[in-house]
## 1
Amino acid sequence: MKKIISVLIIILSVTFVLAGCFEVKPTSSGDVNIQTEPEVVSNDTFHGYSFDEWKKMVKDYYGKYANDVICKFDEKNNFTVDVASKYEVFAQFVFDDETGYAKDINSGLEIDFINGKTINVIKNIDTMFTDNICLGIASITDENEEATINKYCSNRASFDSITRLVLDNGTEYIDKFLIIPKDENVTFDIYSVKLTDEGTIEPEFEVDKDMNNPILFTCDDYESTMPHYGIKLKANGFEDFIPLSFSGYDGSLALSGHESEVIDLTIYE
C-alpha cells in the first residue's frame, strides 16, 4: 500500500511540474491549445550591436515599408537580415564582417544601416554637387530613363532598389522625379501645394517627411505648368520650398529662384 501511495505522489509531482511549463488556453471555437513559454530574446550581437538594435536600425532606414525584420547567422556564420513588408520579403542582406555594410543578395545594393545611408545607389555623387548645391532633381520619362540610369546610377538593380513614393491614381500618364540629396546632412519633405489668393504657391498637406536618401517620386501627369507637389529642403539650418513644375516655354524643370541650392539633373533629348 505504501508503495502505491509513493507512486501516486511521484506521478502527481511530475504532473504539476509539467503543468507549470505549459499554458492552456481555449480558442474562439472552444478547442484548447497548449502553448510553450515565449521565445527567448536572442543575445547574439554583430559588429557591436544586438539583434534588437539591428532591427531598429533597419526599420529606421525603411520606415513604414518594413513590417518585419529577421536577423540571424546562416550556416556559414554570416550575419543576415531579411526585410519584409506586410505581403512579402523584399530585401535579403548579407553583412560584411569588417565594414558592417549590408549587401542585398538579389540587387547588389549596399547599405550602411549604422549611419542610415545607401552606399552605391548613385555614382559620382561627390562631383555632382558643387558650391552650395545640396539637392538634385531629375524628371524621368520613358525616353530618358535608360540614359538617366546610365549616368547617375551604379546599374539597373541600383535604380530599381531606390525607394518609391507613388501618388498616382492609376492614370495612363504619370510624372516621375528622381530626387537626390547631397549627403546625410540634407533632408527633405514632400507636400501637396496650393495657390493662395495672393498668387503664391505654398505647401498644403504633408506627403512624407525627413527623407535623406534618394527617392523616385511618381505622381499624376501635370496637365499644366501649375505644380501639384513641392519639396521642402532642409540643409544645415537652411530651408527652402521648391514647387515641382515645368516651364511653359520649353518643358524643362522650373527651378528659377532656387538655382543656388538645387540642380536640374534631367537629361533632355
## 2
Amino acid sequence: MDFGWNPSSHSQEAMAALHNSPFTDSQLRIEVCEAHGFSEQDGDFVRRIVAALPGLMPDIVANLKRYAEDLGDDAVFRRELRSPGLLFDLESLRNSKEWHFCVDRPSYGSNFGYHVVFAGSDFKDVWAGD
C-alpha cells in the first residue's frame, strides 16, 4: 500500500482491498490526518492495523450492530453502510495508538457516519454523527 500526500487536507492517503467486506463497498480508504512528518514507522503501524482488520472485523460489526439496533438485520447493514475507511490522527497514532474505523450511512445524511474507536487492537467506543 502506497501513501500519497493530499495537500488540501494535509493528510496521507491510501486505498486497500477489504476482502469479504460486510459493507456495500469492498475498497478501504485510509487517511492519516495532520500528517506533516509522517514517518516510515507511522506507515508501518497503519499497515499492521490493515493486516489485522480481518480479525477485528467481527468486533467492528458487532459493535456497530449494538450501537444501532436496526443494523442487526444483515440486509439493512449491508445496504445502509458504505465507504469503509480507517482514520488516524498522527498525534493520537503516536501517543495512544488510537484509530477509527469509519463507515458512512448516507440515508441518514450526506455526512453521517459511524466511528468505531480502537487503541491498537483494543475496542474503546462507538459514536455517530455528521
## 3
Amino acid sequence: MLNFLHITALVCSIFPLIEMTKIKRFYCIIPVALIFDFAMVIPCLLEMFMGPPTTVYYNFRNAMMDEKTNLIFYLFIIIAQVCFYFEIRRIKWKNKKSMNYNISQPSRIYNKIVNSRYRKQVIGLCYLVMLLSIIAVLLAPDPTYYLKLHSVYSTMSQTVYNYDKNIISIIQNLLLIAIVLLKIYDDQDSRIFFVTRILCTIGVALLNQKRTTVMLILGFCLVIDIAFKNKNLKKTMIKYIPAIILVAIYFWAYALITEKISYNQDWYYVINEYFFRNIHTKFSIYAELYPNKVHILDYPCQAILCDFLFFIPRSLWLAKPHNYPYYFIAGLLNYGNITEKTWIMPTSYYPEFVSNFGIIGLLISIFFTIFICRYLDKKDSFIKMGGIAIISVLQIYYYDDMLKILAMIV
C-alpha cells in the first residue's frame, strides 16, 4: 500500500507539469508548483532509489520510518498535485472564455519597475543600507564578532546576542532586499552593480552566519535573470556555473570553519535538510500522530499568533509566542520548553500549518497556497513580483519574519 502511494504521488506530479507547458502567460501558480516539486517530490524520487537519508536526529529517523506518517505524507503530495492540476486547468479554461482576462507578463512587470520614476531614489536607498550596515557593525558591542564565521560550539555574550537580535537582524534583512533591488535595476549588467551585490552578499553572510542565505541570494538573481529579464536560459545557466561552483565551495568551507560538519557528514542528508522539505513535513506529521513522544507547540495556532501579532511588543505580552522554527528545533531535540538558540533549522510553511492546525493543516496549506497565487495574479508590478518571490521562498526557507512580510502584502 505504501509503495503504491509512493509511486502514485510521483506519477501525479507529472500531470501539472504537462499542463504548465500549454500556458503561454505567466501565473503565480507555475513557479510555486515547480518549487513545491523541488522541495517535496524530488526527495521522494531519490528516496525510492536511495532510501531515507541517515541522520543524527533521532526524531527525524522515527518520522521517516513511521508507516502512518509516510502514508499521510504521500496522500498530501497526491492531493496537492491534483489541486495544482485543476488550478492550472481552471486558468486555461478562463483564458479561453475571456480574452480580457489579462495577466501581466514578467517582462512587462520588470520594464515597468526599471523605468519607474523612483529608480534613482531606490538605488540611493540601497547604498544607504550598505552604509547603515557598516555603521551598525562599528557600533556593535564587539565589532570583531561580525568579521568572521564562528564555530557552532561557540557562544556569544548576552549584550552581543541582544544587539544581534534587535539591530543586526533588521540590517541583514535590509541588505537582502537591497541585493534583490540592485539586481532588478541592473538592466545594463553594470560592473559597479555587480561588485556592490558581491560586497552586500559577503556582508549578509557575515551578519547572518548562515550559508543558506548565500544560496538564496544566488537563486533570486537566477530567477530575476531568467523569468523577469527574459534572458536565454542556456546562456544564463552557463554564466552562473562559476557562481554555483563558488557557492558550493563556500558551502563546504563553511561546514569546516564552523565545525558544523561534525553534526552530519552524510551529504545525502545535508541536501535533504538544506534544500528539500519532505523530512521536516514528515516530522510535523509524526509529532501530531504521537504527541506523547514529540512536542512542538503548546496549543493550536500558537506560532500563527506570533506571525500575525508580531507588532505587539513582548514587554506588553509576556506570554507572546515565538517564531515557529524555534518550536520546531526544540521539538526535534526533545527540549521540554522552547529555548532561545543561536541557530535554528530552516523549515517551510507546510510543517508550520500542520503544527498549528493538526493533520488538517496539510489541506489548509494547499488551499492557502492556491489562494495566495490567485490573489497575486490580480496584482501588478512590484507587489506581484515580490509576493511570488516571498511565497516561493517560504516553501523552502522560513526562518523568522518572512510570513509576516507576506501577511503585510496581503
